[in-house]
Hints:
Blueprint: E1 2-5, E2 8-10, H1 17-23, H2 25-35, E3 42-46, H3 52-59, E4 63-68, H4 71-83, E5 88-92, E6 105-111, H5 120-129, E7 131-142, H6 147-155, H7 175-183, E8 188-200, H8 203-213, H9 215-218, H10 221-227, H11 229-245, E9 252-264
Parallel strand pairs: 3-4, 3-6, 4-5, 6-7
Antiparallel strand pairs: 1-2, 7-9, 8-9
The chain binds S-adenosylmethionine.
Amino acid sequence: MTSTGGGQTNTWAAGDYPAMADRLLxxxxxxxxxxxxxxGQRVLDVGTGTGNxxxxxxxxxxxxTGTDPTARLLAVAAGRAEREDLTVxxxxxxxxxxDAPDHSFDRVLSVFASMYAPDPRTAAGELLRCCRPDGRVVxxxxxxxxxxSATNRAMAPYLPPPDPAGTPPVRWGxxxxxRGLFGAAGASVASGTSSVRFEFRTxxxxxxxxxxxxxxxxxxxxxxxSTGAWDGLLADLRRCxxxxxxxxxxxxxxxxxxxLTVVEPGGGSESGGGDGSG
Length: 278
Ligand SMILES: C[S@@+](CC[C@H](N)C(=O)[O-])C[C@H]1O[C@@H](n2cnc3c(N)ncnc32)[C@H](O)[C@@H]1O
């Protein structure tokens, strides 16, 4: 395992995250849309994972760099770019230490990624630092009351405890918190909610997908199986899906809400965030 910084262990490669990333594509599209990307612009996608937002920006003709601390996901991103004959610069890196000069990008994006930086203030400062004053930073983060948060709460008792001094990632899904993070330096900050729709044939299929794609869970799986806790976890997750879907339905449809925040470092006119369901 590698580290994502702040002493955290990186488990993003331990599960089938690329399958989850496919389902999150509508959120990346909403971020790219809110960024208003045009051909020729320099775009940075921080925590690019398998490259969802980076590739959308590259297809729009932007000159794109995607960074991520998880080498295996960057390799998937690079493979996707190669298959489409798109040129993107892929680099190892975390949000809290961006290896780029000040004001070197027109658009800085982060889709469900900067929220995992152990120090949110440093990460937000870095996103702003490498964006041009007349540019735009656009971030997406699950809200504290989202379905994604509910499943994380269900999984938490089965996982190693988080750093008690750390900031829960979903704080980035609270408009007041992100305004405090980005607004202090005189930037304009506008947030709105949207959601990602998940559909599975059955609740069991949904639970299978969730556990398969969650690297932090897969990293604990053999221990949980050996203690017999794994079955309890599956039952708790199943309850999450049934509750959110309004019953043990087939298919199972749930929506997970996220906050989309548009920051204009130079304090330009307010532009709306997300406003509908993905
Ligand atoms: C939920 S995935 C999102 C990936 C991608 N942006 C997408 O939309 O599919 C979270 C990503 O954040 C990355 N990550 C973890 N810690 C990070 C940090 N401190 N700074 C930047 N990215 C980080 C992980 O490697 C992973 O690729």
